[in-house]
Specification:
Elements: E1 2-7, E2 17-23, E3 36-41, E4 49-62, E5 74-84, H1 91-94, H2 105-115
Parallel strand pairs: 1-3
Antiparallel strand pairs: 2-5, 3-4, 4-5
Length: 118
């Protein structure tokens, strides 16, 4: 499977990344070692958007807290980058692909990522 994580990244050139108790999206609670993940350095946290593609080296589902009715699933993962982003891919670059009905292949792929549809 392929997953995406968007979080604060303190060192984009690190050899490995550990993400503790991260909220999941788009089925991320099923992430397992060997899965591919795209790492986005959160722009709202000072990052630049896509920084790398990586492979998951360890994954642990975090147990839900008792007594809390609604909780977003969380996981702790360690990943090893396999390829750095070749060009900038952040909010500014993605903004041109917001017309879901323009028939462009880029827009179709972003729609799948945002809705989880296949």
């Amino acid at each position: 499977m392929i997953y995406v994580i968007k979080t604060e990244i303190s060192d984009p050139s690190a050899k490995t990344f550990a993400f503790d108790e991260q909220k999941t999206m788009y089925g991320g609670k099923r992430i397992r070692p060997g899965d591919t993940i795209f790492i986005f350095a959160s722009e709202s946290e000072g990052g630049t958007g896509l920084i790398a593609r990586a492979v998951v080296t360890s994954a642990k589902e975090i147990a839900k807290k008792s007594g809390v009715a609604r909780q977003t699933p969380r996981v702790s993962i360690t990943v090893k980058p396999t390829e750095s982003a070749k060009r900038q891919l952040g909010r500014r670059e993605l903004k041109t692909f917001t017309d879901w009905n323009d028939g462009r292949p880029e827009t179709e792929e972003l729609q799948v990522l945002s809705t989880g549809d296949k």
